[in-house]
Amino acid sequence: MSKRRSLPGKLERRLRRRLGQQRLLTDVESLAVYECDALTHFSAMPLAVTFPHSTEDCVAIMRACFDAQIPVTPRGAGTGLSGGAVPPSDGGVLIDTSMMRSILELNTVDRRARVQPGLVNARLSECVAENGLFYAPDPSSQSVCTLGGNVAENASGPHGLKYGSTRQHILGATIVLEDGEIIELSDEGDEYDLLSLVVGSEGTLGIVTEIEVRLTQKPASVMTLLGAFGSLAGACQAVSDVIAAGIEASAIEAMDHLTIEAVESSVHAAGYPRHADAVLLIELDGNPRDVSADAKAIAEVFEQHDLLSFERANDPEQRSRLWQGRKGAFGAMGRVAPNVYVMDAVVPRSRLQQAILEIGAICTRYDLRLANVFHAGEGNLHPNISYDARDPDEVDRVLKANAEIVRACLDLGGTLSGEHGVGLEKKEFMHLQFGAPVLESFASIRRAFGPRSLMNPGKLLPTPRACTEVKGPAKQVFTTFEDLV
C-alpha cells in the first residue's frame, strides 16, 4: 500500500495562520468524514478541510493552494448525488462552506436577498415567510442542502415544473477564482452571460462566496392532490395528458409501488395507498378559482387512466405529510437494502412510459431491485437501484445497469442530467450527448477561468481517452453554452 500524501508543511502553516486550529482539519479521523458525498460509490480522502467564514477567507485559501499547486474542491452540505464534492484521488484541499450561512442583505420590497453559500435552502424561505415571500427552488434535500451547492449543480426540485431551476432565481454572484481573484457577476448589464456559465459548472470555474437570489411572492391559494393508479404506465400517460390539456401544475411527482411500500414503512409515512402500483402527487397554486377549476380538470383526466382513488389534502398538516413522504423517499429506501444508487436523467414527457418500461427491463435483466421516484411533469427520472455495496458482483451489475439506463434515456431524446449534475458519475458519458467540438469549447472555458485547472479537477468533463473511444459521429444535443446550464 502506498503512503498517503500529506498536506505540504508550508501550506498548512499558511492556512493555520489564516484560519486557526479549529477551522482547518488535517487528522485522518476527521478527514474520513469528507471522503464522499451522498453518492457513496465514489470516495477519496482530502489532504485537509478548511472552513472559511467569508469571501476574504476563501481568497486566502485559494491563493495559498494556488501557490502550492494543490487542487481545491468546494463542498456544501455533502448532499450531492454525482460525486461532485469528492476530492481528487491523490488528495487536495476541500473548502467546506457550511460556516458561511448568513443572510447579508434582505430587500423584501424588490424581492431580493444576498446570502452566503452555506445557508440552508429551506432556511431562506423560513426567514422571509412573514413578508409573504419564499425561495422557489426546492430540492428534496432542501432541509439540509445549501444554496451554494444548489448553484453549483443548478438544482431544481419538485416545483421546478412551474418555477424553474436554480438559474432562474439567481441574480448575481461573487466568485473566487483558482488564483484568488474575485469577480462579480450579474444578470443585469453584463455584456456576456457569465453568470449562466457559473451556475451548474459544479465548482470547476471557481468557488461561489456570495449569491444574490430572487424571492417569490407566496401564491394566494395552494392545493395538493394525490392520485393512486393501478399501473405505473397509466400514471405516466395521465401526466402527459394533463400537460397536453394545458393545465399548469406547480409540481407533478410520481412514485411506484416499491417506493410507496418503503415510505409507508418508514418514519416518512404519508398515508399513500399501499395497494396502488403508483401515485401522483400534484400541487396547484395561484388564483383560488383557477386552482379549483384545474383540480376538477385533473380529476377528469385521471379517471381515464386506471385511477384507483383521488384525494385532496384537507389542511396544511396533511399537505405537509404528503410532501414529507415524497421528500423522504430516498432515505426510506434504506429499508430495502443497505445502499441505493440514485440516478438522474431526463426524457421527453411523451416518452415517460417507454422510458420506465425500458429501465425496468434493464434492471430485471441484471437482477436488481428498482424503485422509481421522479419529477413526472418535467420528465426528470430518478431510478433508485437498491443494492449491497459489500457484494462486488452486485455492484458491478448496478454500474452496468446504470450505463445502459443512461444510454436508453439519451436514445429517447433525453439528457444526461436534470438536476444532480455530472460530477464523477457521468463524466465519461458526456461524449454520448455532446460532440467533440462542444466538449472542447467547455474545456476552453474552464481554462479561461483557471489555466491550472485546480478547481475541482476530474469532474464534469470526460478524460481524453473516453472521447477517443466514440464510435461514429458524436451525438451533439446542445450547441450553446446557455443550453448547458
Tags for this entry?
single chain, 485 residues, alpha+beta, 8-stranded antiparallel sheet, 5-stranded antiparallel sheet, 18 helices, 19 strands, 34% helix
CA-based shape: globular
Unreliable spans: 466-485
Radius of gyration, in Å, reads: 22 Å
Helix content: 25-40%
Number of helices: 18
Structural class: alpha+beta
Topology, number of strands: 19
Could you describe the 3D structure shown?
There is one protein chain. The protein has 485 residues and is α+β, with helices and mostly antiparallel strands. It has helices at 9-19, 28-31, 55-68, 121-128, 147-153, 160-163, 194-198, 232-244, 257-264, 288-302, 316-327, 329-332, 352-365, 392-411, 430-433, 436-449, 464-468, 481-484, and strands at residues 24-25, 48-50, 72-75, 93-96, 103-107, 112-115, 133-134, 170-176, 182-186, 207-214, 216-217, 221-229, 251-256, 278-286, 307-312, 339-342, 345-346, 369-375, 380-387. Helix 13 runs antiparallel to helix 14 (392-411).
What's the structural blueprint in terms of helices and strands?
Elements: H1 9-19, E1 24-25, H2 28-31, E2 48-50, H3 55-68, E3 72-75, E4 93-96, E5 103-107, E6 112-115, H4 121-128, E7 133-134, H5 147-153, H6 160-163, E8 170-176, E9 182-186, H7 194-198, E10 207-214, E11 216-217, E12 221-229, H8 232-244, E13 251-256, H9 257-264, E14 278-286, H10 288-302, E15 307-312, H11 316-327, H12 329-332, E16 339-342, E17 345-346, H13 352-365, E18 369-375, E19 380-387, H14 392-411, H15 430-433, H16 436-449, H17 464-468, H18 481-484
Parallel strand pairs: 2-4, 3-4
Antiparallel strand pairs: 1-2, 5-6, 6-10, 7-11, 8-9, 8-10, 12-14, 12-15, 13-14, 13-18, 16-19, 17-19, 18-19
Helix pairs in contact: 1-3, 8-10, 8-13, 13-14
